[in-house]
Amino acid sequence: METKKDLLYSNDHEWVRVEGEKAYIGITDFAQHSLGEIVYVELPEVGDDLNAGDVFGVIESVKAASDSYLPVSGKVLEVNEALSDSPQLINEDPYGSWIVLVELSGKSDLDDLMNAQEYEEFCSKED
Amino acid sequence: MKDYNSLIFELSKEGRKAYSLPPCDVGETRLDSLIPSSFLRDDEVDLPEVSEVDVVRHFTNLSTKNYGVDTGFYPLGSCTMKYNPKINEDMAALSRFSDIHPLQPEETVQGALELMFNLDSMLSEITGMERVTLQPAAGAHGELTGLMIIKAYHENRGDKKRNKIIVPDSAHGTNPASAAVAGFEIIEIESDKNGAVDLEKLKAVLSDEIAGLMLTNPSTLGLFEQNIKQIADLVHEAGGLLYYDGANANAIMGIARPGDMGFDVIHLNLHKTFSTPHGGGGPGSGPVGVRKDLVQFLPIPTVEKKDAKYVLDYDRPHSIGKVKSFYGHFGVAVKAYAYILSMGGDGLKNASQEAVLNANYIMNKLKKYYYLPMDQVCKHEFVLSGLLDNENHVSTLDVAKRLLDYGYHPPTIYFPLIVSDAIMIEPTETESVETLDSFIDVMIKISEEAKENPEILKTAPHDTNVRRIDEVKAARNLILKWDKNKQ
Amino acid sequence: MHRYIPNTEADEKQMLNSIGAKSIEDLFVDIPKNLRLEKNLNIHGPLSELELSNHMKNLSNSNKSVDDLVCFLGAGAYDHYIPSIVKHLAMRSEFYTAYTPYQPEISQGTLQVIFEYQTMICSLTGMDVTNASMYDGATACVEAAIMAVESARRDSVVVSSTVHPDVRKVLKSYMRFRDVEVIEVDMTDGVTDIEKLKSLVGSNIAGVIIQNPNFFGIIEDMTEIEKITHANKSVLINYVDPISLGILKSPADYGVDIVVGEGQSLGNSMSFGGPYLGFLATNSKLMRKMPGRIVGQSDDVDGKRAFVLTLQAREQHIRRYKATSNICSNQGLNALIAAIYMTTMGKKGIKEVAEQSAKKAHYAMNQLTKTGKFKLLFDKPFFKEFALTSSVESTRINKGLLHHNILGGYGLDKDYPELKNGLLLCVTEKRTKEQIDKLAQVMEVI
Fold this sequence. Notes:
heterotrimer; B: Aspartate Aminotransferase, domain 1; 7-stranded mixed β-sheet; C: alpha/beta; 4-stranded antiparallel β-sheet; 17 strands; 36% helix
């Protein structure tokens, strides 16, 4: 399982890359691996105001449909349209394939997230 | 016809037809003089144009690409794939059963109403319930109806805070789904190591917010829930009701009754226990039975007998309403009724006994080759957990696919979820010892192949009409209908 | 021993030996004694095949079929002609004794039939996608309403009072338990009241449900309804008679979002109300909200065309407690029958059935209203059903007709108390001029 040092992680297996007041969000290598071959990604609407813990998308593989929970509160600025036609991008490059870009409502949510090392330990318990 | 591979649309040719109607004898009128042309379509519906022989050969050839109970052994766990008696089909097709309109005056459908009334009594006797409705269309629909009744019961008592249903983690997937659709929150409880309800875990979640518990008995592992009385008492003491999922009723007919175990609401699957065919996915029929004080909540209409006449009773103020058009799958009910009479009370009991005997026989022979997690007497089915000594990592799916090469329908696989690599085998009572022996031999042979030639399993099936299908491609590149313009 | 149970006593003995049990009773030791049924089930039988057949025929003879009676009754179940080959082919036991096609390698028959069924339902409705069928028209309508609620994220639906009363009843039972409000919009002169619809459709309305032709057989003004619905970003649901689509504009032509209906007319016998099939078709935008089974085309490992269940990930057996629908089975055999029927009738046949039904219904209406004893209840364009009114109670008319072996119409006052003496009649392509003339003649003197 791969992790990236500069990212933050949630216990629902989403990663967060903070850039100033904005953050890119995707799912981790661990998540894509346990889902298997992804066949569809349901994206939120641009402009949606979401709270931390809200469902922002659904990721479907042949064997599972999994809700993705937003780890931080914020407004959806952009969605990764490329995933509509090529959902397998998440399997191929989970950390390169962001799902949404949000404008953070605040930074306090970030305190609840894990760093790469903590996330690796978390996953080793889940296995 | 070898390798028939045509879609009906590919056979279509302008000018051909497969139907004939008498000429219209009410005079020549233009359609647009009757209905304004703005409502009429400009084009014709793009349906096939083929001859009658084309239709017959097409569907006959397609049928040969299927595997039914009439083709061979079908030990699909939890599905009770028993023989579907032919006489039942003839009876349901009798013109005075099949060609009657659901809204005919009651005096012209007395036979149909009598049949429904009697089937209600028979199913009530078998399950130990007060009354049964035939309205639900399938097992899952029965669950939903039963849960609506449970909700109506609590609401009628003025108890509106009961919004949770307990479902064991071994339950059929439809149980939690039905509870969700009925507007309940689901509390899942972990089973104990034998797959039974863990009494301590149950106690921990019981409260005045619990509307009920859904359970199947025998459990999805094919084991009788021995603590059922205690479970019922606990749930009842907490003010909840007990729901019985009848998927596994083939083990207990004439032997034990859900009503006597303490269940308040039950459903049965006529397409499992009562021999009606599965039809390649339906129609099923999921009658729901209730204890006496819940009869008032049954869907409308019920069939009642008044002064030697059978009538439909819509005047039931506490009813949950209708869950389906008309009265349910009457055509399926006819077949189940015919089956029950063919068997008689003692015959039904014997069916359950033989179903249990057949399951135990296979289980004992296979446990030397496959891992049997619960080594005890099973009921009508049992669950294996993959191959023993599986050094070559042959999966349960591989075993199932290899069975296809040997001409068997595979067991249910990867269910229940609480057993890893589950192989769930339900032989039913309509199979002979010779059939079981042949199947056992093949299962043993496959376990040997797994050691000596695992590749042949991992690439199975080899001898079927088509081989393993690319499900990822089907889901990513959705083709859900034939498109003339893409050919 | 019983004819359906092959094990002999000798077999039993040998099997028990192999298990290490002394008797069958040993296999039931796990059922506590106090739960064992002490008595024999009080159920008649066993009957031999001959006894059973006699019993069942006797019982059925207390019914009158539409072969015994000339049927002018519709209201949700229809006496259309079923070509002989439909039953012959549907009764191939490889089809009807199979389970759900979870093992696609040995279920290509069922899977291809569903794929062809899906294609034909899409042709008929003009929609992009459909599923492998639902329990019946009423439950299909409920599922469509739930799709609307889920996709619009609003918690009320509007249904026209010209929608079949049973469909509205089923909708209300389901929605009561989901806390979705069902609002009925009144009718004027037998059609949905457009002004009232306009005033009801607001920001809380997820979907609008319209039957077309409606319960009275009347063709609704879908163009106006579509504008109102979509201006409010609600989902437009249309409940249709599939036979009517042989001649009427398709729901897709009107911009409908979800089409549902009762598929019984497509070759299924009336069987006292079931089993039938519901169909549900939608546009690609709502495709992933669609419940039920769906068959897709793919290839096998050798590159051969093959069919398989797809979009299964959201099905209840995987989603479990997050499911928005709990439907598991489809009406496989009834969908097969519908597919064979649509294939047999084909492009020309479906049109001819619809045309003859419409023409004969209009002829009947003219004959029945000639003397003025019966009047059209609503003077609006209709398809194969129409409502009459007179000074005579509908039950009395039907009684009189039954006396002449005619199955009369549906008394409307049961569901619409304001339509006293309203009688809904249906005429299909099966009726002859002679039968219609007889109907008019008998009704004239009741």
